[in-house]
Amino acid sequence: MDKLIVHGGRKLSGSVNISGAKNASLPILAAALLTDEDVIIRRVPDVSDTNYMIQILSALGAQVERSSGTVRISAKDITHDAPYELVRKMRASICVMGPLLARLGKARVSLPGGCVIGDRPVDLHLKGLRAIGTVIDMEGGNMDMTTPNGLIGAEVDLRGKQGPTVLGTDNLMMAAVLAKGTTVIESAAAEPEVVDLANFLIGMGAQIEGAGTRRITIEGVEKLHGVEHTIIPDRIEAGTFMVAGAMAAEKEGITLNRICREHLAPVAEKLIEAGHNVHFNEAGTTVTVSPGAHPTGAKIVTAPHPGFPTDMQAQFSSLFAVTKGISVIEDTIFPQRFMHCAEMGRMGANIKVDSGTAVIEGVESLSAAPVMASDLRASAALVLSALTAKGSTEINRVYHIDRGYEHIDEKLLTLGADVERVQE
Ligand SMILES: CC(=O)N[C@H]1[C@@H](OP(=O)(O)OP(=O)(O)OC[C@H]2O[C@@H](n3ccc(=O)[nH]c3=O)[C@H](O)[C@@H]2O)O[C@H](CO)[C@@H](O)[C@@H]1O
Ligand SMILES: C=C(OP(=O)(O)O)C(=O)O
């Protein structure tokens, strides 16, 4: 199991390229199952989650070739049974449900388990798929799905207690593209990754309107064809490096290339509110972030897009842990997503977590300690904390970070951080 050792206190400078979005790549890779023609997807990040998805597609019978960021998929003869051993490793494997139902009229996928960031039910996925004609039989931890009368378009409201569902919207959209008639998804997720999937499907010949709004309309078509598509930049990776810039850059800041300004608006606004410097180029494709002269704490409440993303709140905990004053972070989407706070406490952070809210009292500096990554964004928060901490922080279980950050240690080294990956 690899660990990262971060020798804190180095100032960051220079620039790095942001990778394609993990959370757009996963459903888009699954959507390649919707056609028997070749699909080419560019800028797929080399992270363990995309590798698991590729393994699942291969286990389902697809021919997959990967050459650096480009993945070519040919899903001519596929089966409907997604193997438990692979599915259990990654929640996003449930993205294959929609495409398998649309293409084969049946699917067998294991129920994903709980998750350290909190309860993650699939009731809304099932509600959507049932509404368009899927019959679901739960047995032995598996969801056995059939479509006795085929998939038939319907109007479905996917609002859950915590708001819309991203992968639930994706699953229904992927099933509905080959259904008979019109499907309307009300209370749809509007995240940029949902829009990227919709654009991919439209490129395959699907008829979809309204992606990026709360109402998506899908007119089913007979057949989809092959497509070439480039994945959008990863706004969470970019946001994580933006926080690194605010915490640890030289006066001139660090620059991130291949970003999309519109997707980064909530993160940029919070950094500016907290007193830091954020400058986009005119085209909105690069951003430079440097620490402000008078940083202040702030209040963050996570919300569905275009609100502040839950996937960025842990990283802001690191920033606020060393920012004078009191900051408050409330996660309305995953109220239990605060595992990083206890580990940061071991480094000297002063954070109290109660009922989905963290109250952070900034301290002068953190000091190194051996810490344990508990989940993807929690590990990013620990790396950020370690960049400014006094001494050498050992971060264990970095396989969590490798799920979603492409070569993070190499990118940090490029920016001048002192980071080592140690294999045990
Ligand atoms: C691979 C991927 O893209 N993952 C992202 C996706 O996860 P994912 O799509 O799994 O998250 P959802 O948008 O579905 O979850 C939003 C909320 O809805 C609840 N819910 C969800 C489904 C359901 O059937 N019933 C239900 O109650 C969840 O518990 C949560 O409180 O969106 C999350 C919210 O932006 C991000 O944190 C994840 O990084
Ligand atoms: C929580 C995340 O991913 P997943 O939904 O795949 O667990 C994430 O990307 O922050």
From TrEMBL:
InterPro entries reported for this sequence: Enolpyruvate_Tfrase_dom, Enolpyruvate_Tfrase_sf, MurA_subfamily, RNA3'P_cycl/enolpyr_Trfase_a/b, UDP_GlcNAc_COvinyl_MurA
One Gene Ontology MF term: UDP-N-acetylglucosamine 1-carboxyvinyltransferase activity
Pfam families: EPSP_synthase (PF00275)
Residues binding phosphoenolpyruvate: K22, N23
Binding residues for UDP-N-acetyl-alpha-D-glucosamine: R91, R120, P121, V122, D123, L124, D311, I333
Keyword Transferase in record: yes
Classification via Gene3D superfamilies: Enolpyruvate transferase domain
Enzyme class: transferase
Catalyses which reaction(s): phosphoenolpyruvate + UDP-N-acetyl-alpha-D-glucosamine = UDP-N-acetyl-3-O-(1-carboxyvinyl)-alpha-D-glucosamine + phosphate
Functional pathway: Cell wall biogenesis; peptidoglycan biosynthesis
GO cellular component, one term: cytoplasm
Annotated active site: C115 (proton donor)
Keywords: Cell cycle, Cell division, Cell shape, Cell wall biogenesis/degradation, Cytoplasm, Peptidoglycan synthesis, Pyruvate, Transferase
EC number, UniProt record: 2.5.1.7
UniProt similarity note: Belongs to the EPSP synthase family. MurA subfamily.
NCBIfam families given in the database record: murA, PRK09369.1
Role, per record: Cell wall formation. Adds enolpyruvyl to UDP-N-acetylglucosamine.
Name assigned to this protein: UDP-N-acetylglucosamine 1-carboxyvinyltransferase
Organism for this UniProt entry: Rubritalea profundi
Gene: murA
